[in-house]
Amino acid sequence: MALSSFPEYNGSCHPEDWLRKFKLVATVQEKISSESEIFLKTDPSFSIFKIESEHKLLALRFTHLTDVKDFIIELRQLLADAEIFDPKLQKQSILKILPTNLSDTLGLKIAESQDIHEVFINLRNFLSQYKRVLKYGSVITLRHIDTGKLLSSSLHKYTGGSKQYWAYAVNCRATDYESWTVMPELIKDGVPPVYQKDLIVCYGDKITLLNNGTGQKLHSHPYERFNPQ
Question: Residue 35's Cα: distance from chain center in Å?
Fold first, then answer.
């Protein structure tokens, strides 16, 4: 109980006596609070709340769009709501909900962490690095180094040549037309590739870029250079 919730000391008694009364009232209120907590935890609604919290915890997922800080805050809150306080059980719960392509090194680092604070520090560092790794399903922009312009597209089509949608560079803030979703290589035209989101794109992988504004894939056509005789 905060000291400010009591009347201001007015000198009517010795300060020690006043503080003794204050401590007595605070102790009684703490006892009431403790007894209320025990009573509420016997209510069937609390059992349902714990089960729901456990389900939410297992369903919690981290993707490239998730904010690291918000994820960790929600994770810690759900662990508390589910009353998972044992460090070993907390570590097991965390490992269950991390991305499936979690590196063995980090999994081992979390498992061997001495306390839960170290676990969350390692988790924060890993997730921050994980967000910077290119994955299938990632939404990216492509910027020209020299000009700083972004690769864009539009619903307009070329009147000649391929007669496909425009692909060009623009100097503006990124919109859907400057955003591209990373997908695996398109094997057959007209058949969208099947892939697992958040799977890391490895060096040498052939990829497809889908423009989020037009829904069309970035591609090129054979072009024969004019060679005058």
Answer: 38
pLDDT tens digits, residue range 111-140? Answer: 777 788 888 888 888 888 877 888 888 888
Tell me if residue 129 falls in helix, strand or coil: helix
Is residue 183 within 8 A of residue 167, CB to CB? The reply is no
Question: Following DSSP, what letter does each residue of 3-69 receive, concatenated?
Answer: GGGSPPP-SSS-HHHHHHHHHHHHHHHHHHHHHHHHHHHTSHHHHHHHHHHHHHHHH----TTS-HH
pLDDT at residue 176 is higher than 80 = yes
How far from chain centre, in Å, is Cα 94? 13
CA distance 89 to 92: 5
The verdict on pTM exceeding 0.85 is no
Report the chain's terminal Cα–Cα distance, integer Å: 95
Q: Which residues contact 1 (CB under 8 A, 6 or more apart)?
A: 25, 26, 29, 30
- Hey, where are the domains in the chain? 44-130, 139-211
pLDDT tens for residues 31-61? Answer: 555 555 565 677 778 888 889 999 999 999 8
Nearest to 123 by CA among 168, 93, 160: 93
Calpha distance 60→79 (Å, rounded): 11
